[in-house]
């Protein structure tokens, strides 16, 4: 009888302690919720919530300045005249109303004229990106727009294409340089267009094929009308290398909390004849530049990558 009483007493104490723990937890829960509901002068939440707030990637969908780096596409090459740059129609920083560039969409036309800069160079390869980034960093842009890599595949032969490992090392070097000089800058990285798609669209135009013979992307565009096994293998080798490059761009960018890619949107875009230069039928036309600007703007202003 006495043992039963002791057991009952201990059980009662355990229940009391359990009830107290539940009430305490509930009170703490109300306290935390109350802090969250208070205005801006309230103290920051503590514990794991605070840690998440500190480590959450910060992405500003309305940066105040833009610098562009890359190659001929970003320079608007062959969009206005044959074998000439036309930066005013650049998808990244151009002033043309027909393009409505990324910079104009983000900053407005007046501010874009003062706070956007184009450091891309026609013919540039990934190995040149570090130098471009170094020059762009002097302007302290809040967003750096990158489109590079097509010329690493557009070589005299497929064997002359930049090896994937070298491409990765060069892009990592450029990103490391950018991050050292601009620790808080955001980076938008465009994928490389599908060069084989561009060949398939342009090969039906006699004028375009004559311009191709001047040396535009011979690894893909050389012997444009040939459909034999050797030509097919060559073009597929270039296509595959571009896909490998795009994977590198995605992987390296993913390691940087302030970097975003277009998730392959430019590569997947099906350029038609209206979106290709009517001089070389390979580079983007003014309309094609506008499509690139649309893709970039969607990526930069998305709430989540």
TrEMBL record:
Low complexity: bias regions: 41-50
InterPro entries from the UniProt entry: GDSL (IPR001087), PLB1 (IPR038885), SGNH_hydro_sf (IPR036514)
Keyword Ribonucleoprotein: no
Signal peptide: 1-33
Record keywords, A-Z: Hydrolase, Signal
Regions crossing the membrane: none
Region (Disordered) location: 41-60
MF annotations from Gene Ontology: hydrolase activity
PANTHER family documented for this protein: GH22081P-RELATED, PHOSPHOLIPASE B, PLB1
Protein name, as recorded: SGNH/GDSL hydrolase family protein
Native source species: Streptomyces hyderabadensis
